[in-house]
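Hey, weird one. I pasted the DUF5104 domain-containing protein sequence into the form twice and got a warning about non-standard characters only the second time. First submission, copied straight from the form history:
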Amino acid sequence: MKNRSLLIVAIVIFFLVGCSANEINTTKTESGIDVPIVEVKNEDDKIEIARVVFEEYLKLTYENYLNDRNEKINILKDYKINDITVLEKLNYEVYRIEVSYDLQSTDGYATVFETGNGEIKEDNWVKGKYQIVDIKKIGEYKYTISDMYTG
């Protein structure tokens, strides 16, 4: 009986931890785009903060893409951040970066990544993507994207 109770407790804990591990906190940019809220402990490294926030944005957006049948699917096969540069500090909480990156889609979705800028290459890669992103501190060790532009 004791073993059975322990097993039930273990299953409940496993279920709760497993479910919550997949959840990501999100907010919206000023223009209404869903963006992640990311925890980064090293608050001195603006490039690292921007990299982590932008990578989580790519995953949130393209691993949960709504297709024509209104189904959430993952269209992000791979990505590469080529460069991140801090452009300016906008205020105490916000700084602006530029990021150049490449995206690889699953078959049939490269044109989604081409939107805005970039060029479709071999193996569903879209190379030469460029974005200007405003990174905002919203709490202790917590960052998000407040706005973004293609330049």
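That's the output from the first submission. The warning seems to come from a hidden character in my clipboard, not from the data itself. Strands lie at 26-28, 34-36, 38-39, 65-66, 72-73, 76-89, 94-105, 119-120, 125-139, 142-149.
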